[in-house]
Design brief:
Elements: E1 4-7, H1 13-17, E2 22-25, E3 28-34, H2 49-66, E4 74-81, H3 87-98, E5 104-109, E6 120-127
Parallel strand pairs: 4-5
Antiparallel strand pairs: 1-2, 2-3, 3-6, 4-6
Helix pairs in contact: 2-3
Length: 130
């Protein structure tokens, strides 16, 4: 059985909900819904889907690195928005990170997130080679 590695991002919601930012088992890393939480707390880039997506991807990248992976290992992402009409702004930030890597991706809309200031969350899955 593979060792289970839990990765925390320090989100104030991790202990409240009982989740990890990422979990690695074997060569698979899964990153849960990642919100645009600013480094100092609160919401990053309030009202700006592009800026919030960039922040989400920074958190995802750190979680994957902390689990021993690289962004080049990402095979799937999910971009979850509260307003699908803003998809192009989120897609632009995603393409800046993944334009060459090109994981499979799903864009979807939900009615709301835990914090109403969050406009986007990102999920990711990676398979680490070797």
């Amino acid at each position: 059985m593979s060792e289970r590695q839990l990765v925390s991002s320090g989100s104030y919601l991790e202990p409240v909900i009982g989740f990890s930012r990422a979990v690695r088992v074997g060569n698979c890393i899964v990153v849960g819904g990642t919100a645009p939480i600013a480094a100092a707390g609160g919401t990053a880039a309030t009202g700006d889907v592009y800026g919030q997506t960039k922040r989400c991807l920074e958190i995802v990248e750190k979680a994957i690195a902390d689990a021993g992976g690289r962004m080049e290992d990402v095979t799937r992402t999910r971009i979850i928005l509260t307003d699908i009409s803003l998809w192009k702004d989120a897609a632009r930030a995603h393409a800046e990170m993944f334009g060459v890597i090109r994981p499979v991706t799903t864009l979807m809309q939900v009615t709301a997130f835990v914090d109403p200031a969050w406009l986007v969350e990102i999920e990711a899955e990676a398979i680490v080679a070797g």
